[in-house]
Sequence to fold (563 residues):
Amino acid sequence: MKTISRIEKETRKRKILVVDDERINRLLLGKILEEEYELLFASNGREALDIIKSEYKTLSIILLDLLMPVMNGFELLEALEAEKRYKNIPVIVLTSEHNAEIRSLQIGAVDFIPKPYDMPEVIRARVKRSIKLAEENTVLNAVENDSLTGLYNREFFFEYAKDLDMYHNELEKDAIVVNINRFHLVNELYGHSAGNDLLRAVADSVRTLLREYIGLACRCDSDTFYLYLEHSADPSEIAGRLISDIAGRSGLSDVSVRIGIYESCDRSLTMEQRIDRAAIACNTCRSSYSSSYAFYDNELHEKELFCEKLVRDTDKALAEGQFVVHYQPKFNIEGDKPRLSSAEALIRWMHPEHGRISPGVFIPLFEENGLIQKLDRYVWNEAAKAVAEWKKNYGITLPVSVNVSRVDMYDPGLEDELLKIVSSNGLSPRDLLLEITESAYSGNSGQMIEVIGKLREDGFMIEMDDFGSGYSSLNMLSSMPIDILKLDMGFVRKICESDKDKRLVEIILEIADFLSVPVIAEGVEKEEQYLLLKSMGCNVIQGYYFSKPLPPENLGMWLARTK
Fold:
């Protein structure tokens, strides 16, 4: 069927609209063109416009007289130029006035045919050439433009941005990245049609801006737009205008954007690097729940260099043991006296040049750059060695919780890797508790359930970490196989000051009791927090109230004292 459709497309007659108020001229042109083309006729611009509105998708070309009643040719050309969907229809003007030819070419005509029509072969050749060029241009546009918004696609944006530098080398330029906040929720809440309307609204706002500034723009990825344009004296004013205009066009009150600006771009950088800097600035606004913008500055530049250095240093750091695993004890508080029941493995990076680096810095960086799996496996091995060492030296088995990142859950080799680690250290799966953050459960729940089910069948116990920090918990609990709930420490910090947080903790404990799973509260630092949690029925506590994270040898000495 596809082959037949293609042949039909190639062999069908192209459709031509002839617009001329003189009947004899319409007849003459019809006689010259009727053998090769399907013809439509109009006697003035208004009549022609009505035909164009219904036939624009099939019209191959318009032959247009300029001097007509009701609506003349110039007025029709301006109307076609103003309407985006008509711009791809080529127009050849029919005239005998040289000045009129120049003006018509300036406002959108592609060629002209002089009157009288005494050279049929020339007319046919010009019509055929104009149609061919228009169709080739349409194919090119289909390749270089995003089909939804009409802006350039990413590849052609970068190519034409280089041309912009070449032909406007005297201008300083700004790189701008616009991203729609939580765009996936727009599709989920309002439907994909509303999501497409929003993307077109952003594109229209961008185009409005480009009418005032020399530059270009593209849609990159589903919800991100790049702009590269002449430097503005007040880029924040441009950002404000974009934010306001997009909000007005979208018609969705709960939709916002974030904007990153790298102004007065360093010309020694590649175009990709310039856009990357604007993207870095844009990402600093990621946590904002309102429209906002940020500039790439020296501070961000230094942070970028620092993060890049950390990424490059990672493999060497793992090989040299710069990553140090400490263990924070967990205490079961159900009896009269707190009892050491397990510990959590917490990673530290002792960098030879930068000193101690916070996990809050390198963990998100590793997650972003795909290095988190290497780090997780390092921690799993170190934790298993520590548990084996304590068992050997003190005759006590103290289970340790280790983090399993979301990306680990999609690794087909995860189960074998974990079983290999516990087996090679003479442990059982019960000795390594697997912490999976609540946010990881909101992905492919079917696959998560399958993977977790297999791990539990092997004997591993599963902790849902940071419970209560996201929106997916409650609707996942009924189907997700877990053994322990770990309460998000944000609740614990305010449990004694906020009745609301206290009540939320009570509700979570009631849910856990209904599910017959124990609850761990982390981040307990004060006696009043400990006593309140104990009175509410919390099972296990972890935090500085009992102990800070300890090196394995220090925790080993603690175990020795408990024998």
